[in-house]
Amino acid sequence: MKTEQIKKLEKAIWKATKKQGVFCCFEVTIGWSGKERVDYMTYNTKDEFRCYEIKITKADFHSKCHNSFVGDFNYYVMPIELYEQVKLEIPNDIGVYVSKEYISHQLTALEFVKCIKKAKRRKIVDRETLKNSMIRSLYREVSKQIQSDNPLVIEAKNREISRLRTEREHYYRESWDLRRKLEGVTRDGSRG
Q: For 88-102, how does the pLDDT look when each residue is reduced to its tens digit (9 = 90+)?
């Protein structure tokens, strides 16, 4: 079971890495036998794999669980407090994203991540296995969504976004017309 802190870190790293041309997936099992699992993996249109291992505590960082650093670039994602405790133990070629909670407008605690140490490129032995592994894991996630009680949630959200954009445009045009009317200018540009 994932803790709330892990869920926050997952959401934060997803927000930090989602860009056009970048494809992402959580819990990617590497290879058909499933001996290794990457907490989060991205693949981009430059044919680069980035792997992220999420660590919450010092015990988690030192656990016997395998760090699946199999990407072109590999990172730890952790709270800044943990980074301060283990920074000297992190290999030179592994990058680090840290998180920190902060208060926004004195209302809500939000989580964000920031890359404070860049990863160095490693040579990948089997790119095809990584692609196949990511495809299988993405299929697993799509299957979960389709089997859920509300498989069309994304479509519903996209419709809501579209509706809000249309409303915004309507209010913008209405505001513009009122402003011009107050200035005494008609739509054709003549003074009324």
A: 999 999 999 998 765
